User: Fold these one by one.
Assistant:
Number 1:
Amino acid sequence: MAYPRTIRNFNAFVDGTSYFGKVLTGKLPEIKTQNSSHRGGGMDGPVSIDMGTEALSAELTFAEWLPELIKMFGTRQRFVFRAAAVGEQDFTADDHVITVGGRITIVSQGDLEAGKDNPLKLHMEVDYYRIQKNGENLIEIDIEAGSRIVDGVDQVADQRRAMGV
């Protein structure tokens, strides 16, 4: 039986600074195409047409209220999530590196309650997304540049060419 190589741990960087031991959770962007339904004459049902990428967002939760992070509200930053996947056959780890860039739009300190943790959350509206495994680019989306590269193929390159970009 083959055991899966599961994510065992992760670290996060904000603007190049490691928050090892201080980051609690990371919410990665959910990548999804924005689709339009089309049903032309004679078709027995609708089909989904890819109209681009839906809005992306990411979030990091920290164990303490770090002033340098709170002061990033409204600024453009990069989050880098580094996850390690390990199997059961040996002690080698695959590295998964997810890089997101965008504007920090929400800084949340949650609810104050005695005897409870009060984490800090940073929410980012993402306009750049890249996921790599062991150095191989799997997906790279650059909203501003108008590119969506999946497995080395820019799926919208010909659209940019047709528009004269």
Note: Residues 6-33+48-134 form one domain.
Number 2:
Amino acid sequence: MAAAHFYRIGKPGEAWGEAEFSAWSADAGVVKRSYAEEVLAKLEALKERFDVEQYGALSQDAARYPLFCVKTRGWDAAKPCVLVTGGVHGYETSGVQGALLFAATKMAAFAERFNVCVCPCVSPWGYECIQRWSAKAVDPNRSFYATQAESPAEESGAVVALVAKLGGGAAGRWAMHIDLHETTDTDDSEFRPAKAARDGGALEDDGIPDGFYLVGNSEAPQPAWHGKIIDAVRAVTHIAPPDAEGKIIGAPIVQEGVVNYPTKSLFLCSSVTDAEYATTTEVYPDSTATPVTPEQCNEAQVAAVVGGLEFILAQ
């Protein structure tokens, strides 16, 4: 008797073929919420104070999925630059809504000292369909290659091209990039099983951290900066403790609420600039031990960005 598969699509130990990808696409592409209503409409209100510019569109439906960024006006090559990205994984709601909330409520306060660019929803198809991957079953957060042409996900490639177009700030340097994410319970129930099934691998369980944490760059750690962000977020939501092995998502913690990855070699979004200060946030919206509201999740994202900027200003 054949072993039962851990995912509804595919066979144990066999990577997906055309039939499996087609089955996943039919299942995944059901629209569950509106990018136009929940993202694009909110950008309209920002046009009075900022430059709201289209930097691309998804080829599957360019009219439905235009890609926009929000920039402080008077982009000045003498100023350091800051990038905030949200919705690289479209299903992670507070990444998108937190980025929009930062632009609406806090971004103007930093316009005198920084050029700030916010890409609030990098993956609009993923946002509408509440999916981690692109419509082609590619993870955008493993797709930030050196050039747009190399990037396996067009969502990621569009950001790569935008960063190249904007350049850096003072001396061509980006000062900070914060990429806003969530870790949800569906990571365990849906997205990790889907990845393992797609690749024909075994299902691994790294657990779901109960609280907020950061993913830094192991090649350029910034413990003081990360500490400032953790302290800022602590006022809004709880910080994830390590598991029994002293790890978060399988990686050893390097300080409270922080793990480090080789972000460049993994092609993570947080590596897309040359920013000295770059990190990925991970909000946990599904906590039962310490329940949090969607509003708190969004505010935690804003607190992370503001805390990071305030640290740089204090240097």
Note: The chain has one domain: 18-314.
Number 3:
Amino acid sequence: MFCTKCGVANPDTAHFCLACGHAFNADIEVAPAATVYAGFWQRFAATFIDGFIVTLFSIPAFVIIALGASSSKSAQAITTLAGYIIIYAISAIYFSFMESGERSATYGKRWLGIKVHDLDGNRISGARAFARWLSHFFSYVTLYIGFIMQPFTERKQALHDMISGTVVIDSGEKKNSAGVIIGVVVAFFVGIAVIGILAAIAIPAYQDYLTRARTAEGLAQAEGASRLVEMYYLKTGNVPATLEEAGFTAVPSPSIAEIKVNPENAVISVLFAPTAGQTLAAKHLILTPSKEATGIIWKCSSTDILPRNLPQSCRY
């Protein structure tokens, strides 16, 4: 290379001119590094992480809303409004404080190695960070087009970035892979979907099992009562006025409200309690006697319980 001061040729590895002693490093101008803007998937993954964090901090607000749901309409409206105000306040404080902080990034953005700056590449103020948070409203009300447009703009700006005059840059610092995070996100939602499907199948099946178990319990007690009523009839030629008169004592059960006999036709009915569940509450299981050549036959039936919830012997 040639010295820019005296023009003498020097080895390429030389730091000073052999002729005049001029320092070559002084002539080297370091070009500023080009700004790299954060990609769509980096920002998506960071948003998911931040949303999860905000949700965790908002749990007390959700509790307030849930408590309000069991109150009067006026109290419910007030608690619901208060709950949502708390949620939005937490979100505003989180994003405004962290994006205007020394690291210019929320925890999600830090994990992905991205930062929020102004258009000149400087740290943003708290007011601008708050304005950026508010501007998300326009990205949502445009049916998410404000977010989707981000990869196609010159500076990779979403609509709320343009409104608030900010950019999201790739800091070049050590970061986690957006692909891995997105994979975790997808796996999370797939897992939730699978759990939901399994719950949708298992919960009704379990409820049906409990219902059939309760009707079977009612039938077992009714059959015990029928044997005593039958013995009473064969002995006296009359139907007892009550099951107690026939010597029957019901086994205490939270699912059964009452077991009684009709003294006119000896029909035994089981009335289920509200604690038996919505499918059985205030409904009846009936045992009807009939004289046959082989003796008295008791037939099980119901006019208000679904056939699938009845014991097998009561379905025909």
Note: The chain has three domains: 1-30, 40-176, 193-314.
Number 4:
Amino acid sequence: MASATARPRPKRILIVEDQAILGMELELLLSHAGHEVVGVAVDSRQALALAEQARPDLALVDIRLKDGATGTTIAERMVAGGITVLFVTAEPELIPSQFAGAFGVLMKPYSAPSVEQAVDYCLALREGEDPGPPPYPLRLAPWLSARLESNGPH
């Protein structure tokens, strides 16, 4: 089993969070963990523009943004463009049953270790590694859980 914490190079991460203090906190946590934060978007327009320009490995996406856009709409577009998405939300009931293609959801409030573990886990899966069971409190999308049960991470 490959370690979900081993990173040969920093991964590029986009944060989509309309609460400035939470966006800055995530940016600090992820930078401290050795990742490259390519931007913090506060609305859907900025999120999609940054995603197209920066081509991140992973996007952390809040489910509800103040501009009225939903994280699920943003996630669908990012996933279609080959970007791995992890929802970060306090409102999991707003996530559609198939998670709009996102790998999973990390519930707010979160801790620094839970963010790092969830991000590393999703990045390991993206790379085709087998990081084992998901760390608490990461909840995997049903489509991904089914795939892992039947085929493994690939």
Note: The chain has one domain: 12-151.
